[in-house]
Give the backbone structure.
Amino acid sequence: MRTQTIDSDITVIGGGLAGVCAAISAARLGKTVALIGNRPVLGGNSSSEVRVWVVGATAHGIQRFARESGVIGELYVENQYRNPEGNPVIWDEVVMDAVRAEPNIRLFLNTDVREVDAADIEGERVVTGVRGWTMGSEIWTEFTSPYFIDASGDGLIGHLAGAEYRLGREARSEFGESWAPEEADEKFLGSTILFYTKDLGRPVKFVPPNSAKDITQTPIPSSRILRSGDSGAHYWWIEYGGELDIVHDNEEIRDELRSVIFGIWDYIKNSGKFDAETLDLEWVGSLPGKREYRRFVGDHVLTQNDILEQTEFDDAVAFGGWSIDLHPVEGMYATEPGAHQRYSNGIYGIPFRSYYSRNVANLLLAGRDISASHVAFGSSRVMATCAAGGEAAGTGASFALDLGVRPRAIAEHHASELRQLLLRQDASVFGVRNEDPDDLALRATVTASSEATSIDPAVFAPGGEDQLLPLTRDVGLLVPQNAVPIDQRLTTRVAVTGSPEPQWVRVPLDWHPEHPESVVVVVEAQEGAELVYRATQVPGVLTLVHDPQADGDANVEVDESEALIAWPAFPMRGRTVRARLEPATEAFAAAKAVGGYQRYYGGPQLWASEPIAADNPQQLRLEWDEPVELRCLRVVFDDDQDVELNTLHHHRTPDEVFPELVRDYVLEVRRDGEWMEVARVVENRRRQRVHEFDPITTDAARIRVLATNGAGQARVIALRAY
């Protein structure tokens, strides 16, 4: 046995995705980070030990333009390329490689933090150090740093430090939440263990262990959907412990969950009701995937009303979009649906004030233990949202060190600066326009070799064939007019003479907003009429068929009157109705790549060129009136954030690399009238690329796009210069 002391700028306790993203974000900002995980692999509930899919604001494709960017976005996109089969073991290595790529991170796996030193110093409660035991290595380590991030899930670190927290459900009256119970209690969302099956192509018998539960004596066969071909996260509803203490009763919960899994498999294999003769039970988890335990109290408690009303926070540093997803406390033994879901009408912001403890001055929070009510936690708990918040916490801790202030002071006095820093990192923030005072691109004149000016898919991306969409239901077309109203602005009727051939119909649209916005044009159902579309996705254009649909999970109860469910985008995703705007759209102008929002907000936020070809490369140029000293160019490319990604590919996406991403490009600066290359990249598959070089005095910079990964246009979301 030996002992050691590790001193860092920031100590992150918890190796799940929230902790990983916190550590990476801080390390990239130059801080030394100790990342401590108590398991042999990173990823938390998403790891190969538990195998829960990583979901977030896209809500299985129900939300629009909602996929996370930043560190978790990078992990999603890299996993899509490396791991098209959704193997959880390979996902482990995707996460591990991302951590190992950061030289400022020291990683301590299999290390369980059990002791915390905290004291009242100069009028504030602070953590001074934590200690952990590394099993297998027999190392006792003391970790010290100015800041600590509790990303442990259960919140043991904050608890031992004396941070205020809540357990269970608040009373309805406390925050005015309609989904909260009348009286407060200590009931939770339960824990889950999953299982995998495999078809061996030959008969396989199953002899149940003695522990297997006879599920015919439970409500499961009649209240849950059982299918022989399902496995993994399809069985998320195998849930137990909501009426127990999730932590202290963890062993009992594990045993009950495993007994039910073996009982379910016995029922599938041996009841004669399923086509399962050649199926084998390949893997059963041993570690319960916990949903809920401690939720710390910050300067703001996120609530149901914040989510459903999409409250605008000046210090919003991450976003969510998953439904408020609450489960019956009886879990798998409930007779009601396994989940009740309610969606906000779009993504919602989470304030920085929810990511730090209100009474421990140097303790930040990341993951499922952030400051939220039980009801709001029903949405904020999913892993991609936790990861986005982890990046916010890691960035916030780094920024606090730079300024020499506490997190509360950042929320009160430096929130806009923090949001600008997050935007520069391409983190998951929305509604934040680039106003970075250090970005020299904001002072430049922006031009391009060409600009797309049409939303007609036949013009935007020539090729393909017209297809017909019968108008059996109302169809909404969300378009980037040089002008989404949430209320009805205009109704018009246009006489159309029937024709066997497609024809253009002119629709007057008297809509003149002060700033460019999107507009939804609803074409009412009409027997015998059809709309023409092509299998091309034009950026920022959605076709919404008024045909209520969720993600098809029969174990979930949703309200089909909710706008997102009533007007789903995913049935027609990747296809665009043929439409034209007069005057021509400016939604894809070169200027959109500088000083914009860096993700869809009131319309697409990117430059898109006219069609690109090997003999017709496209370019985006910055020119300054006076020479500037340049040392870094940051480029953000389009990876179509309207497409849902999932680590286990439950909703399979066909492209391993997003076709919209620029593949080959050159960065150049102009010096003494001559262009000089500073970077050349081939086979790019990433959204954000940062190119640093020795300082150069220049009066112009440009990116020359030589090829994409399949899209017909060059697309750049942001070009920044430092």
Observations:
- Residues 250-270 form the longest helix (21 residues).
- The chain has a mean pLDDT of 95.
